[in-house]
Design a protein that fits this description.
This protein is mainly alpha-helical and 408 residues long. It contains 16 helices and no strands. It has helices at 19-33, 39-49, 54-62, 77-98, 103-125, 139-153, 158-177, 197-203, 217-225, 247-265, 270-293, 305-328, 336-342, 345-354, 356-367, 380-401.
Length: 408
């Protein structure tokens, strides 16, 4: 791709802030900062007493990552991050353009932001470790790895963006499908790669070998790449099956967000925009489902091409619902707690990564050791997560009132 400024296309005169996007960002950040309101751990406690409870099984499924194939609400947090980065780019660089910034200056800013995001992700995931954890699976690092490339697609035609997204997804499919590997023996598993036999039999049966945990091209790349970096111990495998090259298909997720941002920024009639969001969302779910049926499973942990499309479908539908309620119907007051967080997402994300344990201990110091058991031991995780998250929200509210916004 040429490093030259794309043909200039004058942006619409109006440039109002998209409050539904702030609310969406806030929804995801509240979910994350409040640790899912402790509902996964609370569900586990209740399932110990009643393993057959359909309600608590459903709660657990939605607030914990699925083991491998499938999707719950908790799995949509990272794709929402990636998707919203693309939507935001459609607005932020147009604003910089209006301020008179040159393309070269904006590209330099994008590169700087990419580097900071990668390093911030490494810093936050190394919290409490004995040495820097040189891994790139964290959501901030993944965004950073693709951000400069995303900028190069900003301002290009919709056709160019669609072709690029298709190339990224098909290229990822080819990279996995053509990698010479048989995957683990399901009867024996691969304990040395973090895949016990029982887990393999339960989670990988019927899944093509190309998409097996820690036995695929992404794992092979990481065992070479990450061991080139300074480490206390050799990198052998990622316990969750995540890998660095996830940034390639997740760049397609960000690119889909960029296309949506351009749609919402356009002068099209608002209801037409809403219909397109819903239509594209349903299409994403359908295409992702069909692709999975054809043998490319929906796996968030390795960001399979079907997952990129399927999860984007859900992102579109969530944004469509918020857009309809907040920007079309103008029912905005209820979203204020989300907007407060959405406008300081980096701040609350860092607090959640660095200060969660300290905040919980401090609350116990001042409110009593049993403060989280006020509704019984089974509900203690929910009470703890909610109180800790509320402390983080109050900091964001204080920053919001003083117009302090932490940005990169």
């Amino acid at each position: 791709m040429s490093l030259v400024s794309p043909p200039a296309s004058p942006p619409p005169a109006a440039s109002t802030r998209l409050q539904s996007l702030d609310a969406y960002r806030g929804l995801i950040m509240v979910t994350l900062a409040f640790n899912g309101f402790g509902l996964a751990a609370t569900a586990r406690n209740h399932l110990q007493a009643d393993p057959q409870s359909g309600f608590w099984q459903a709660v657990y499924h939605q607030f914990e990552h699925v083991e491998w194939v499938g999707c719950g609400y908790w799995d949509l947090i990272q794709p929402s991050f990636m998707f919203m980065v693309g939507v935001s780019m459609a607005y932020s660089y147009v604003n910089r353009q209006r301020e008179g910034q040159s393309w070269a200056r904006m590209f330099g800013h994008a590169c700087w932001r990419a580097v900071v995001l990668v390093l911030l992700g490494i810093f936050l995931t190394s919290n409490g470790a004995r040495a820097t954890g040189w891994q790139f699976m964290n959501v901030l690092s993944q965004i950073g790895l693709g951000y400069a490339f995303l900028f190069l697609l900003w301002g290009r035609s919709l056709r160019a963006q669609v072709i690029t997204a298709a190339a990224l997804l098909l290229g990822t499919w080819a990279l996995y499908a053509w990698f010479p590997g048989a995957g683990p023996d399901l009867a024996k598993g691969a304990p040395a790669a973090g895949v016990p036999a029982k887990w393999a039999q339960e989670q990988l049966a019927g899944v093509g070998a190309a998409w097996h945990k820690n036995a695929n091209v992404g794992h092979a790349i990481d065992t070479r790449l990450l061991n080139l970096l300074p480490r206390r111990e050799p990198f052998v495998f990622n316990t969750g099956g995540y890998q660095t090259i996830n940034f390639i298909p997740s760049l397609a997720t960000m690119l889909f967000g960029l296309m949506v941002g351009e749609l919402l920024r356009s002068s099209r009639e608002a209801r037409r925009k809403l219909l397109l969001l819903v239509g594209w969302g349903l299409a994403g779910l359908a295409v992702g489902g069909v692709w999975s049926w054809l043998g490319v499973p929906v796996v968030k942990r390795i960001w399979t091409p079907s997952w990129a499309v399927f999860s984007t479908g859900w992102c579109l539908l969530i944004l469509a619902a918020l857009y309809a309620i907040i920007d079309l119907r103008q029912w905005r007051a209820w979203s204020f707690p989300l907007v407060v967080v959405g406008m300081n997402s980096i701040a609350i994300y860092a607090m959640g990564m660095l200060l969660r344990s300290w905040t919980a201990k401090t609350l116990q110091t001042h409110l009593g050791e049993n403060v989280f058991k006020m509704f019984g031991s089974a509900w203690a995780p929910a009470v703890q997560a909610t109180l800790v998250g509320l402390m983080f929200w109050l900091v964001c509210w204080w920053m919001y009132r003083r117009k302090i916004f932490l940005r990169i």
